[in-house]
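Changelog note: in this version the structure field was regenerated for every chain. One regenerated record is shown below for reference.
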Amino acid sequence: MATFAESPGFPPVWILPFYPGSDFTIQYQGWFENLLYPPIFQFGAAGTTSPAINFSQSIADPPIYTRHDTQVTLVLKHWVWSDGKPVTTRDITFWLNLLKANKAEWADYTPGGFPDNITAVKVDGPYRITFSLNKSYSPAYYTGNELSQITPIPQHVWDRTSAHGPVGNYDLSTSGAKKVMAFLQAQSRHRQTYATNPLWSVVDGPWRLSSYDLSGKVVFVPNKRFSGTPKPRLSKFIELPFASDTAEFNAVRTGLLDVGYIPTTDLASSSIVRSLESQGFAVGQWKVYGFNSLFLNFNNPTVGPIFDQLYIRQALEHLINQPLYIRVADHGYGQPTYGPVVNGPSAYIAPAERSNPYPYDPAAARKLLESHGWAIRPGGTSVCVRPGTAGTECGAGIHKGEGLSFQLLTYSGQTQQAVTMEELKSVASQVGVDISIKTVANVFATAGQCTPKQPVCAWQIADWGGGVYTAPNGYPLGSGYFFCKGNNNHENYCNPTEDRLSLEGRAAGGSIVPWETFLVKQLPMLWIPNSDFEVVAAKSTLHGVLPANNTLSVFPQAWYYTKGH
């Protein structure tokens, strides 16, 4: 048995492997859903930091691309569901039919992307399926960002429109697929039944639920019919909820947790790691293959026009002292972010992303603002005194007398964010950028995609916690964070050049570099340090936990204790 600490405030609250944007988090997918219903490809593995697809532990073999990369075939391994029924291509077409009929419900949907780019589906038997595509695609992109979205789900159990109605083939019609999705979503909202609902008892992952309570405590036990590798060696895997970092760390030090983490505030003590090691813990960094940023709401009716100005974004970026944040708030456990990829394979990191084009420089920020028609009021609020669209004026949509005053959202109880954002607020005041900080329980859910007239579009800047590239977004290009109208585009950023470069990079022979270079310079978000997700403390007798994988997923099926533990 092993106990594992959930992130404070993030108990898993969504079990259906179709999730809206508000539930698109690593805590819900990589720590919960994927243990029950793994996606078709597994990114990363226990004991390695590599984010690469681990085909040996995936449901399908490496995809086969033919006809100049306009056709791709998946061959399934002969896995079975926990009720003994085989996992087949029917479980894939079921998932795909639900997706096609309910694209707006899928957090990872981007118009024109998967499944829109599939023109035909040919089922060649229970274990082989071929997709015809609308054009040639880069196999790296299409495998890592499109096929990776597929999660086989048990059609023989879930293809129903009510709890007591018969299982059918409702998904074969659009109206039927909508009814099935509505039913499954309603069931997923009934958290108190997660461990007892017959729907969720049929799994193909390494684990099944033994118990779940509304506090977020989750007990997994091995799925005895798990077809993949490695087979679970632990008798139980238990995830425990915590209200704060302090409560979690107390649980580590008192022996309640086998795998926890050291809160950032405690890392200030140079002896804390040595103390834990003397108690029988191994300590290691949990780096993130992704990026970190502040969302800017381009659709906010008040400040959206201000964020639309590149010089404003450049000025704001010059106020961000990344080296200081890493040293003071992260205590060295972090890496600078200059663009959309950090801690990724070297081939995915553009030359422009290896140095900061907008380093910390408040004087440069002031110069940018003054040269574009702003009267600087240190300690107050700078205002636009030259409205208009000329090169020396404030820009389109900005009125005379309008001020640089913004509200910034951070997570409640997150000391690390509080330290960095208070520092940003202090520096920004030197050039008359007034930042007020508001804490909320879930920044990511609060700072959602919206239109200017919607009340929920009132948010302005959000310290949302950063992105990670894992299933279904293992390849950075095409993740939808920056694509016009992509469901993952919380900040409502839309730039035709970004979309063009993104699409060109997805094509056969395309490169990720031009897309990255554009984003580095254009600042669709404000880049801030990519802090280590956690500094992990794991019982030294529990093997497979460290090194922690950069995808942030966990693989407890590969964990085991030293013999005699």
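Spot check on this record: The CA atoms of residues 444 and 464 lie 5 Å apart. The mean pLDDT is 95.
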